[in-house]
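Record now logged for everyone:
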Amino acid sequence: MSPEERAAKIELYNKGFKLLKETLHDIPRKAWKYKPAPNEWSIHEIILHLADSETNAAMRARLLAVEPGKTLMAYDQEKWAAGLNYHDQDVDDALKLVKFARRTTANWLKTLPEEVFKNSVVHPEYETPFTFDKWLAIYSGHIPSHIEQIKNNFELWQDIDKKA
């Protein structure tokens, strides 16, 4: 990844929470617990997933920066959602976690020297080394991909709400 591409990814990463808040602003809270299907997440669950994922991502980035070569912890997001009872957790606290994990990590990323982005770690779910650039590519797009999921959930909920 070129320095320019990296800077653009860091900027997208930095905007992730703002984009999420803008999306959620127009969705009534009563729609947040709607599940499109039993095996699909509600908006509430997506937000709790983001809190867990973003805090894990922040730690992974730090490990990449200071302990290259180490092994990352993998986790099963479906088991976390069920086992941690996402629907029983406070969504506003989760949003704060996402906000601050993103803010502190984005600000820190901007200070890193270029050579740090060549670092890699072992990720149990990847056969090849997990590079810092791969981390950045994944997490800069993580919130935007879930925003699409949130919008789809809201659209489906609106269809059902109109029929009720």
Notes: The longest strand covers residues 120-121. The domain at 3-163 is CATH 1.20.120.450 (Four Helix Bundle (Hemerythrin (Met), subunit A)). The chain has one domain: 3-163. The chain has six helices and two strands.
